[in-house]
Amino acid sequence: MFSVTVRDHMMVAHSFRGEVFGPAQRLHGATFVVDATFRRAELDDDGIVVDIGRAGEALHAILSELNYRNLDDEPQFAGTNTTTEVLARTIADRLAEQVHADALGAGARELSGLAVTLRESHVAWASYERDL
Amino acid sequence: MFSVTVRDHMMVAHSFRGEVFGPAQRLHGATFVVDATFRRAELDDDGIVVDIGRAGEALHAILSELNYRNLDDEPQFAGTNTTTEVLARTIADRLAEQVHADALGAGARELSGLAVTLRESHVAWASYERDL
Amino acid sequence: MFSVTVRDHMMVAHSFRGEVFGPAQRLHGATFVVDATFRRAELDDDGIVVDIGRAGEALHAILSELNYRNLDDEPQFAGTNTTTEVLARTIADRLAEQVHADALGAGARELSGLAVTLRESHVAWASYERDL
Amino acid sequence: MFSVTVRDHMMVAHSFRGEVFGPAQRLHGATFVVDATFRRAELDDDGIVVDIGRAGEALHAILSELNYRNLDDEPQFAGTNTTTEVLARTIADRLAEQVHADALGAGARELSGLAVTLRESHVAWASYERDL
Amino acid sequence: MFSVTVRDHMMVAHSFRGEVFGPAQRLHGATFVVDATFRRAELDDDGIVVDIGRAGEALHAILSELNYRNLDDEPQFAGTNTTTEVLARTIADRLAEQVHADALGAGARELSGLAVTLRESHVAWASYERDL
Amino acid sequence: MFSVTVRDHMMVAHSFRGEVFGPAQRLHGATFVVDATFRRAELDDDGIVVDIGRAGEALHAILSELNYRNLDDEPQFAGTNTTTEVLARTIADRLAEQVHADALGAGARELSGLAVTLRESHVAWASYERDL
Description:
Six copies of one chain form a homohexamer. With 132 residues, chain A is an alpha+beta fold.
């Protein structure tokens, strides 16, 4: 099994609902360093898992829709805590849509899975992985 | 599949028995930077894998019992080489006990697995993963 | 010249005023990984620059007053852009006050300088250094 | 499941054939920071996955055959793009040969799998994993 | 004294002349992770050292002229070993030209100095710093 | 001003005397990731600060005398707390002796200064810098 990973980041504000979050129930923020991993059983004829340029652009475009925003004001997240875990799934699912829409090239149809990791600090991170 | 990871560290002395260890048979020491990963198939109603605050406290408590000690003097490790691999399993198994004792909250019963990675330097690390 | 550095972090929301900030004029957020460096010409009788335990606690206390907050709502920053640079100076100046108030121990009077670095992502950071 | 990882690096020149590579079709180069991971279900009697000294030497020997070279001139890669993915598989397969030849010790016969990750920059990396 | 740093990278081929370089006399390559630091005594009215967006673009433009190239073929480096140290100075001097040409904004005239660090691997790096 | 840095590490046991050290008065241990920086005003005719191969070997030889040892048993440290700061100075002074003995080559006589940083964990490090 092969994989390729590209890294980017976004800087957002948000707050959480629920006692479990303690002081993070207040409006605060985070830099999320985002690693998107693409998995594939065999390489294509060029010797790659995916066009890494397109993969990076797809990730950047997805993050740009969230970057420099207060996620509490985004209708798409109404009623949802935008935890690191939830954001990892959101980004992975949007990357999957891009793969299925051939935005990463026709070869990307051979990808078998995706994983997205969001690092919220030097001591905490979360991941979500899914099939394609 | 989702996961959340928290990082902490401990600083211990120890020595190893066995020719394979070469100069590490002498009493020496290590800083272990410890990453504890909690896995879960679905998020809870708060949108999280586990209460990250409690997870970090559970890890810190386990490391505190080993930190700033000579592991050669700890009865719990009598007759055992406290290799990076063995310590990864020890910490993972103690975290599993804490999960099963509801120390990470009732929601942690839904966790499916744990992984613990100990980084002993910038060029070497070991991991142990297990089901819950 | 000797120095000792301790690392901690904070997660805040804020916005900036001024065209130069582009999309960062919107309410957004950041994780700042904060490195506080203490400088001293000679070591004390214990062989240290500063009591690293107290230094870490002083830094943590200062960050706790800002952590999990929207800095736009903090009266102390009214009329000020809370840029990475400004926050580095704020934290350094508060550490200097703690040093002068002997909160880091009487030995800390021998410190000659401080530097504070805030890493806002894996690709950008800012520092402020000052004498004591 | 246990694993142990060792890190080393190599610095090579190469070029790629195929429009997908854009400017990387020109002769350029890369530092690859290489992480080799050895997996095993149970520890041996010494409490280890593998003799980490021998594992590091085996990895270093394999990288030495590629290091400080123009991979375009290496007959072994004739007709092959030496992408990060391809190099990860090459190194993993050579490590597997070393394991099977007992170069990592007789105990290494119990290893169940290998993974090799090549980091080509702070924002991109690729991995290949295989059974043993 | 304040500073702001931005990080980018480039991937180049080159060879060195001189016995001191050993096997690096052969054509090989490197990924250079490049950190450009801008220093300034006081912040401007916006609370910044420099427009970080423009600073990042200036660095990226300078690296783009070298990226994905064999530096042995670049006339600008004829008769010069493109060591990590030489490249750090080259990039710093080009950034200085951009500052003096107001490419980073009129405010950048207040910058007092620059430093450029090139990381060639996880275990080696070089820096050059100069006044403005 | 130019500088070049090489990284290596050592794993030692030790204990400290003095109430300020709290639990670190017990025998414990540390991995020290060691960065040795060599400074020089101008490059030599090869375009380098120092022969990085020899610099790395000199650092490795110095660390080898301390590595895999209990520093409490080393006569050279009798009556001295082997704090991170003290070890940084010890290593820097030994590197300076090597420079003065031409072990890094005759060109190293032009070096103007040295700095040594010891990282004891992901959240704490110490440095010592001196002239040559």
